[in-house]
Amino acid sequence: MNLVYLLICTTGLIAGTPEHCAVYELRPQYEMTQDVITEKVDRICAKAHEASAKYGGKVTKCETIDNEAKREFDITATRFLPTARAF
């Protein structure tokens, strides 16, 4: 099974607040169709939006990325959050 890389970026509501991004490695527990993966990612993004709004921020990006983009992010990121076991 392939890993799914999810990029989530947040920022504060005040103009000029820097954007903070993290890549999460999601490991499917069983063989999933693309529709099931998309549904689960959409659910995770909705929860990220809710949590961010609750704490005075907003999600600017919540999307799956490929392995090449993940490597690029790892090189340029100021911090990397650990693997999430969301599936």
Lay out the secondary structure.
Layout: E1 4-12, E2 20-26, H1 34-54, E3 57-65, H2 67-76
Antiparallel strand pairs: 1-2, 1-3
Describe the global form: flat
How big is the Rg? 13 Å
Please count the helical segments: 2
Helix content: 25-40%
What is the average per-residue confidence, as pLDDT, rounded to a whole number?
80
Structure description:
- This protein has two helices and three strands; from the N terminus they run E-E-H-E-H.
- It has 87 residues and is of the alpha+beta class.
- It has a domain of 56 residues.
- Strands 2-1-3 form a three-stranded antiparallel β-sheet.
- The longest helix is centred in the middle third of the chain and has 21 residues.
Task: Give a nutshell description of this structure.
The protein is an alpha+beta fold.
Features:
alpha+beta, 3 strands, 87 residues, 3-stranded antiparallel β-sheet, flat
